[in-house]
C-alpha cells in the first residue's frame, strides 16, 4: 500500500509550506516555515459541494511557526510542502533558513 499524506507528515517534523494563488498576470505566493502539529482531513461548509451533507473535505496541515503562531494550511494542487531535516539546510530558494523561520506574501510574475 503506498504511503498516504497522513504518513508523510509527523508531529514535530520541520516543513516549509509554499502556497500559490494564480492570477491572470501574476502569481501570489506565501511561505510558512515551522513544525507540524497535525495533518487532518476536515470538512467545510460549501453550498456547491453537492456531496454528503453538502460538505467539502479538505486536506489541512497545521503548522507551529518558531514564534508560536499556529497556521492552518489547506493543501491543494497549488501547495508544495518541503520536509526539512536539518534546520541549517538551505531552503528551496537557496537561502539559509533562519531561526525565526520565514513567512510572508510576495507577488511573482507568471511564467510566460
Characterization of this structure:
4% of the residues lie in helices and 53% in strands. It is mostly beta strands and 112 residues long. It has one domain (5-86): Roll (SH3 type barrels), CATH 2.30.30. Strands 1, 2, 3, 4, 5 and 6 form a six-stranded antiparallel β-sheet that branches.
CATH topology: SH3 type barrels
Radius of gyration: 16 Å
Q: How are helices and strands ordered from N to C? A: HEEEEEE
Give me the secondary-structure category.
Answer: mainly beta
Total number of strands? 6
Instruction: Identify the quaternary structure here.
Output: single chain
How would you sum up the major sheet? Answer: 6 strands, antiparallel
Number of domains: 1
End-to-end Cα distance:
39 Å
In terms of DSSP E residues, the strand content is over 45%
User: What is the CATH C-level name?
Assistant: Mainly Beta
Uncertain runs: 97-112
Helix content: under 10%
Shape: globular
Sum this structure up briefly:
With 112 residues, the protein is mainly beta. The protein is 4% helix and 53% strand.
Throw out a few tags for this protein.
112 residues, six-stranded antiparallel beta sheet, 1 helix, mainly beta, SH3 type barrels, 53% strand, single chain
Write the layout of secondary structure elements.
Blueprint: H1 5-8, E1 14-22, E2 26-45, E3 55-65, E4 70-75, E5 79-84, E6 103-109
Antiparallel strand pairs: 1-2, 1-5, 2-3, 2-6, 3-4
Amino acid at each position: 500500500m503506498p504511503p498516504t499524506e497522513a504518513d508523510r507528515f509527523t508531529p514535530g517534523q520541520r516543513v516549509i509550506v509554499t502556497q500559490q494563488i494564480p492570477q491572470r498576470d501574476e502569481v501570489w505566493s506565501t511561505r510558512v516555515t515551522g513544525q507540524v502539529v497535525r495533518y487532518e482531513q476536515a470538512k467545510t461548509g460549501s453550498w456547491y459541494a453537492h456531496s454528503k451533507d453538502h460538505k467539502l473535505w479538505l486536506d489541512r496541515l497545521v503548522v507551529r511557526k518558531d514564534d508560536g503562531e499556529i497556521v492552518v494550511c489547506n493543501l491543494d494542487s497549488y501547495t508544495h510542502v518541503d520536509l526539512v531535516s536539518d534546520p541549517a539546510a538551505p531552503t528551496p530558494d537557496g537561502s539559509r533558513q533562519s531561526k525565526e523561520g520565514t513567512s510572508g506574501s510576495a507577488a511573482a510574475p507568471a511564467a510566460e
